[in-house]
Amino acid sequence: MKTFSNNYDVIVCGGGPSGIAAAVSAARQGVKVALIERFGILGGMMTSGYVNPILGAVEPGSIYDEIMSLLEATNLETRNGREMSVDTEKAKYKLLDFAAESGADIFLQTPVVDVIKEGNRLKGVVIGTQRGLANLQAKVIIDATGDGFVAACAGAEYFVGREGDGKCQPTSLEFTIDNVDESRAFTCWGGSDPVQMPDGRKYSDFCKELNLRGELPKNVSIVRIHRTNSSGERSINATQSNGYDTLTPEGVFGAELELRRQIETVIDFLRKYIPGYEKCKLKATGSALGVRETRRILGDYLISDLDVETGARKKDVVVHNAWFLIDIHNPAGVGQAEGHSQPAKPYDIPYSSLLPKGLDNIITCGRCISGTHRAHASYRVMAICMATGQAAGIAAALSAQMNEPPRELEVKALQKALLKTGAVLFD
Ligand SMILES: Cc1cc2nc3c(=O)[nH]c(=O)nc-3n(C[C@H](O)[C@H](O)[C@H](O)COP(=O)(O)OP(=O)(O)OC[C@H]3O[C@@H](n4cnc5c(N)ncnc54)[C@H](O)[C@@H]3O)c2cc1C
User: Which of 229, 92, 243, 236 is nearest to 173 (CA)?
Assistant: First the structure.
């Protein structure tokens, strides 16, 4: 049995899409890495949340491509463009094996509960184990917790929710159904999907009508139905709870209970009204609440609405041509916040948006990086999270090797290392 240490070059907190990419990328640079995950499986929302498909895009050549190939993701062309579908159950093993192969020590069922701080620097983190609390030290710490938990513990400044009223995108619990008749069953990627019912009515209008009639839960005015890579199976993104503060135990509990109550109603709706779904059955549900938005850690740079809308180019680019819609599930009610998802242009993510302001040796990645509420609504998808994880991992490794704080790292050296892995950073 491998013995884990309590002293690392790089500690990655959180084993979701961004954390896995960060840990593997750091370890491949030849440094000693620990990946710490509170659940028993890696994958974050992809596995624990049963979120499928993998959405978004970045310039080809990044670790996202490698992970999609590892997971044998199926490219399902939809009316909304590309959806990469993965087998969630297989992903649980493949992602763990992928991370282990890199040489990183992987702490499972081990929550990070606090940080050990010395001025603006973190000496390490405190983890919870079956033998009690333990300290782990590292030169650089990556916050890939989604919630920005580690940076927040270290005293970083952060935003929660939209500017103005602080309301966050709603939570959802995704689930998978099977026994679907492929010859008749349509799919729907969202409220703007023009797919029609057999009588010519727009399916999204039909969902709204059923919501008003009380045959869909209060907050559910669209039942998104995604094809998966298994015939007769669908991934359902429909349940929705608004207004819970998921940074509190009460909020997590309230949202979880409300969402689990909704699942049966959504399945009844599909069985009763949607062709091809008459005999569908619940196959699996996420084991973790689907939290779209909590803390966004303020960095040296804040990715702005304009950056995402205009496809900004950045000198300290570490992810090139990140793209996804500005997809804001309504924080205050049903449907989309702005009527429908707004367009974005492929934009650059700069290194400075991964560096929490005022802290010396933490790097963020994934959905908690520095940006506005609307920018986050685009970069929060998994393809982009993996790419920011890769950048954070390589930056942390170089910083540890050079004994320099991440902020002092020469950006050109980081970009050179990223280019060497096959990533493309410039037009
Ligand atoms: C309902 C829902 C639907 C979505 N739909 C899509 C979609 O269709 N396609 C798409 O691409 N994206 C989708 N997203 C967005 C996407 O899934 C997330 O934004 C993305 O997974 C974020 O990646 P991450 O690595 O930052 O965080 P996460 O995936 O949340 O991973 C964070 C990891 O850190 C761990 N962690 C947290 N705190 C601690 C701690 N204290 N100690 C140790 N470990 C910790 C967690 O257990 C988790 O494994 C959806 C999100 C939700 C909630």
Answer: 236
Per the structure, the count of domains in the chain is: 2
Share of the chain above pLDDT 90, in %: 96
With a cut of 90, say whether residue 340 has pLDDT above it: no
Cβ(127) – ligand 1 distance below 6 Å = no
Here the CATH number for the domain that contains residue 124 is 3.50.50.60
Mean per-residue pLDDT over the chain, rounded: 97
Same domain, residue pair 281 and 297? no
Q: Once rounded to an integer, what is the mean pLDDT over residues 209-237?
A: 96
Per-residue pLDDT, 190:
92
Q: Judge whether residue 218 has pLDDT over 80.
A: yes
Are residue 157 and residue 302 in the same domain, yes or no? yes
81, pLDDT greater than 80:
no
Per-residue confidence (pLDDT) for residue 152, from 0 to 100 = 98
Q: How far apart are CA 56 and CA 324, in angstroms?
A: 5
Ligand 1 site, residue 145, Cβ cutoff 6 A:
yes
Relative to beta strand 347-350, strand 317-322 is antiparallel
Nearest alpha carbon, ligand 1 atom 35: 14
Q: Which atom of ligand 1 is nearest to the CA of 368?
A: 26
**Is there an atom of ligand 1 within 6 Å of 374 CB?**
no
In a domain, 169, yes or no: no
Contact 121, 137 (CB under 8 A): no
Residue 38 CA to ligand 1 centre (angstroms): 13
Ligand 1 contact via 45 beta carbon (within 6 Å) = yes
Say how many Å lie between the CA of residue 278 and the centre of ligand 1.
32
Cβ atoms of residues 301 and 350 within 8 Å: yes
Residue nearest to atom 26 of ligand 1 (CA): 366
427 lies in a domain? no
Same domain, 405 and 384: yes
User: Does the predicted TM-score (pTM) go above 0.90?
Assistant: yes
51, 110, 219, 263, best to mutate for ligand 1 pocket (most atoms within 8 Å of CB): 51
Based on the domain organization, do 198 and 135 belong to the same domain?
no
Domain check: are 42 and 158 in the same one? yes
Q: Are 28 and 102 in contact (CB under 8 A)?
A: yes
- Please indicate, yes or no, whether residues 243 and 369 belong to a single structural domain of this protein: no
Q: What share of the chain is helix, strand, coil (3-state, %, to 5)?
A: 30, 25, 45
281 shares its domain with 298: no
Annotate 198-224 with DSSP letters as a single string: TTS-BHHHHHHHHHHTTSS-TT-S--E
Residue 12 beta carbon below 6 angstroms from any ligand 1 atom: no
pLDDT at 85: 95
| Banded model confidence at residue 77, pLDDT cuts 50, 70, 90 | confident
Query: Would you state the pLDDT for residue 79?
Result: 76
Residues 62 and 134 in one domain: yes
Residue 1 is assigned to a structural domain of this protein:
no
Q: Which domain holds residue 382?
A: 7-164+293-420
